[in-house]
Amino acid sequence: MTLTDDGAGFAVTGPFADALSGEGNNLVTRAADAFAATFDAAVTGRITLDKQLPVASGLGGGSADAAAMLRLLARRHGIALDDPRLFAIADALGADVPACLFNRTALGTGRGERLVPIDGASGVPVLLVNPGIAVSTAQVFANWDRVDRGALSDDGTLIDRARAGRNDLFEPACRLAPAIATLVEWLAAQPGCMLARMSGSGATCFGLFDSVGQRQAAAGRLAGDQPGYWCLETVLS
User: Fold this and answer.
1) What's the pTM?
2) Could you state, in chain order, the average pLDDT of each consecutive group of 10 residues for the chain (237 residues)?
3) Residue 41 DSSP SS3
């Protein structure tokens, strides 16, 4: 994300630029407008978004873009990044935006906007994989049975708690895209994978690995097995 003084408007670059709609529907410009209104600050210049994440992939890419815009504007205008007004803007933009603005591993409760930092997870190797399927969040929620299966456990180590957890949208997403279940099984079977899950409402899945080397080896095997899949090697922040 960049904001330059040479020009005006909003542009998208990157491998997934064509998948985004026009300026009026983008969370980035909505974030900029909300910041300007909240802080009575003029937002001028040309906004350029370098879109590296697949669209409609369950990664909260649009939310992360909006949060990046808020952080950029806050720095430019001398606003503290923990200013409650920033988080109020983020919450109004979407349930995932406060977590992206928080910018560190955290436990989210409520709609996900109540964030508690989690220590001990930073640096854990992560492999993100998308099977090239755009899954509609609206359709996944429409297929969700809305059964309350209770709160997640807060006992044990972080990885134990994660393993005992669940994603209630996994089953309805798999009914729409069976490749998701196959991908989670593949990730779980890789040497060193501590945990494999679907991200958000899909179709991107992730594996947490014991070491960077094991994550790299899994990414190499994926490139051979499924050369058309999108893949990103990263770590928890």
Assistant:
1) 0.88
2) 90 87 71 97 93 89 95 96 96 93 86 82 95 92 90 83 91 96 98 97 96 98 95 94
3) coil
